[in-house]
Amino acid sequence: MKTIIMIACSLVVMSLPLQAKEVHPKKMEKIDRHIVSAGLTEILIEQLASELYIKQLEAAVMSGSAPLSESDLAAMRRAALAVVEKEFLEKQQLSKILYPIYDEHLTLGELNILLQYSETPFASRMQEVMVQVMQKSSEASLTHTQTLTPLLQEHLTASQ
Predict the structure, then answer these.
(1) Does 32 map to a domain?
(2) How far is CA 19 from the centre of its chain?
(3) Residue among 52, 39, 63 at smallest CA distance from 11
(4) Residues 61, 156: contact at Cβ < 8 Å?
(5) What pLDDT is attached to residue 61?
(6) DSSP secondary-structure letter at 87?
(7) Phi, psi (5° rounding) for residue 76?
(8) DSSP states along 81-99
(9) What is the mean pLDDT of the chain?
(10) Tens-place pLDDT, residues 95-149
(11) What is the pLDDT of residue 22?
């Protein structure tokens, strides 16, 4: 189990850009404000943890290990969240990952407009809804993935 988690963590870390593009400090400040006001931290943490979890499942299936129990799956999910929180929140990596993306696609003026929107009551409502939508989507995806894991194992066994 620890090996699977380590492999998955390595894959995520290796997929990160090695060196972030230089972004103007004013843009960085606006991006940081947007991340907070739009609730992107929670959404991205859930997304990254879900992707890491899927990579763990793939690694477990590819290793040909015995089918995973519910407690193994729950442990993998908790480990994915813990790794993402430690590596991205504590080390403040989310902003560093998002700076070049926002910089490439939005001007400083557009970031100002985005911030004006993201600080409205409607944007707050959307933030609440989107977090719930992402969480429920992740749960549904997890449930669906759990039903597919045995089928994938059968397929892989049959193709060998």
Answers:
(1) yes
(2) 20
(3) 52
(4) yes
(5) 66
(6) I
(7) -65, -40
(8) HHHHIIIIIITTHHHHHHH
(9) 75
(10) 777 889 889 999 999 999 988 988 888 988 887 787 788 778 878 887 887 787 7
(11) 85
**Within-domain flag for 76:** yes
For 64-93, letters b (16+ CB in 10 Å) and e give eeeebeeebbeebbebbbebbeebbeeeeb
CA-to-CA distance for 87 and 18, rounded, in angstroms? 15
Domain residues for the domain of 36 are 2-13+23-148
- The structure tokens listed for 2 are 């620890």
Helices 40-62, 25-37: crossing angle, 10 deg rounding: 80
Residue 160 lies in a domain: no
- For residue 39, give the 3-state DSSP assignment: coil
Determine whether 121 is exposed, middle or buried from the number of CB atoms within 10 Å of its CB (0-12, 13-18, 19+): exposed
What are the b/e assignments for 127-145, b being 16+ CB within 10 Å? beeebeebeeebeeeeeeb
Q: Look up residue 20 and give its amino acid.
A: A
Which residue from 132, 137, 138 is spatially nearest to 50, judged by alpha carbons?
138
* 155 falls within a domain: no
